[in-house]
Amino acid sequence: MDQTYQVRAIGTVQSVLRERGTAPRQGDEGGPDAWIAFDPEVARGLRDLTVGQELLLLTWLDRADRSVLAVHPRGESERPETGVFATRSPDRPNPIGLHRVTLLAVDGTRLKVSDLEALDGTPVLDVKPVLGERGER
Fold first, then answer.
1. Residue 63 belongs to a domain with what CATH number?
2. Is 107 among the domain residues?
3. Using CA atoms, how far apart are residues 13 and 115, in angstroms rounded to an integer?
């Protein structure tokens, strides 16, 4: 399994969160509102997003340790060591972040979202709508 794939950042997180140690572990644990600044080349792809819509934001957790395969969940040493794929740890072989956010505002190629625990400068890989019960869109 020595295949590699290329992904490119299409945007960047703009947040008050600067240090991993001060960021909430999940967005619903106090993640602040943040802006996502997108590359103008993908502006057409932002069409039809609507304020109030729930989105899944995929990021590249660029400050993660890619060598980690097991962790103590939530960094609590009294909890048993657990395989990283059974956790939401940012440290993992492919540190892809998955964030469920709500779109608060659109300003050109910038989106303001709620509850984002990603750090300032985190590369954004993709945005997808949260589908409704019938799988709209």
1. 2.40.30.70
2. yes
3. 12
